[in-house]
Design a protein that fits this description.
alpha+beta; three-stranded mixed sheet; HSP40/DNAj peptide-binding domain; 3 domains; Helix Hairpins; four-stranded mixed sheet
Length: about 375
């Protein structure tokens, strides 16, 4: 990429350090490989963005570049990719990615420094599987779950003597950085698991983990109309940290399928099998609904897979409380074989319709002669 560094970051030459950093964060977020997997052009742009930032964020390199360009950097012995400390910049990016994507974003950038020493997330999530009708009409569920709290024996340090030391591998940052070509990556320190701290003697009660696991039960009201992947928040039922702060418990809903009803958002579909004579006669039949039954009036000559909509017979929307619809789709069944008597009866019925029972003759009356004329 032959663009100059200011163009790459989309800033003016009089941009101050704050503007440069802000522009870098914006561009790096847009072109980061984890957001553009398999996109070689985005990968090249990300490399260029990093190169531009490393030069323009360094006052000495920036002054040289402003005066002599890239050639000046080379002549002065400056490497476009120096051994600068990436902790600050990667930590900044980490907070951006975390806010957009949630924790544990692919590249593993350094997280919020305020959470560096936290051994576990405060919020908990667990899934609960509901029967179809429980989700449709709501229910009460008793949930058994396990949360973490600081070990009382070691005050949450994980150390027998209740003291911790800065991790020798990450120097207390909780992240280790490594380079591959032009790219610089970070990952959670494997030695301290991101805590930034190490211990010399493990606590015998928690085996050095720094926390105990506690099993608890909570009764929750499942609202009417919840669906797959809805989440219900139960306040102050998450993990507990060493400052006695407690997170929230999130219940992820999973719903079993029903044998007859198929849900799509707030609408419910049901397939109604019919014998061909029922359709021919235009009969009225009783079909099930979520709350009981209703009558389906079949028009004469109804088509296979034709749908009939019954408003307000679906599922109540969990937010608006509006009821969806029940959609009944008919499936016409024909006999696989006929007895001699049945065939005779059908032939008599067909004959009774007169010329109406041979619609193909009316449609194709002159077509056969026309086709013959094509080859004369």
């Amino acid at each position: 990429m032959d663009l100059e560094y200011y163009e790459i970051l989309e800033i003016n030459r009089d941009a101050n350090s704050g503007d440069i950093k802000k522009a870098y964060r914006k561009q790096a977020l847009k072109y980061h490989p984890d957001r553009n997997q398999g996109d070689k052009e985005a990968e090249e742009k990300f490399k260029a963005i990093n190169e531009a930032y490393q030069v323009l964020s360094d006052s000495e390199k920036k002054a040289t570049y402003d005066r002599y360009g890239k050639a000046g950097l080379d002549s002065q012995g400056f490497s476009h990719f120096s051994d600068m400390d990436y902790g600050d910049i990667m930590g900044d990016l980490g907070s951006i990615f975390e806010s957009v994507f949630g924790g544990g974003f692919g590249g593993g950038f350094g997280g919020n420094s305020n959470q560096k020493n936290q051994k576990y997330q405060l919020d908990l999530e667990l899934s609960v599987t509901l029967e179809f009708n429980e989700a449709a009409f709501g229910c009460k569920k008793e949930i058994k779950f396990t949360h973490k709290k600081p070990c009382s024996q070691c005050n949450g340090t994980g150390s027998k003597d209740k003291t911790t030391h800065s991790c020798p591998d990450c120097k207390g940052k909780g992240q280790v950085f490594y380079r591959q070509g032009f790219m610089t990556y970070s990952q959670t320190c494997p030695t301290c698991n991101g805590s930034g701290q190490s211990i010399h003697n493990k606590c015998s009660t928690c085996s050095g983990l720094g926390y105990d696991s506690v099993t608890e039960k909570v009764s929750i009201d499942i609202p009417e109309g919840v669906d797959n992947d809805n989440r219900i928040r139960v306040a102050n039922k998450g993990n507990i940290d060493d400052l006695s702060r407690r997170g929230d418990l999130y219940i992820l809903i999973k719903v079993k399928e029903d044998e007859h009803f198929v849900r799509h958002n707030d609408d419910v579909y049901i397939e109604v099998p019919l014998f061909f004579t029922q359709v021919a006669l235009g009969q009225s039949i009783t079909i099930p609904t979520l709350r009981g039954e209703t009558e389906l009036e079949l028009p004469m000559g109804a088509k296979d897979k034709q749908q009939f909509v019954f408003k307000h017979e679906g599922i109540k929307n969990v937010h608006s409380q509006r009821l969806g619809s029940l959609i009944a789709q008919i499936r016409i069944k024909y006999p696989k074989k006929l007895t001699g008597e049945q065939q005779e009866l059908l032939e008599k019925l067909q004959t009774s319709f007169g010329v109406e029972n041979r619609p193909q003759e009316e449609t194709f009356g002159g077509v056969f002669e026309k086709i013959k004329g094509w080859f004369n």
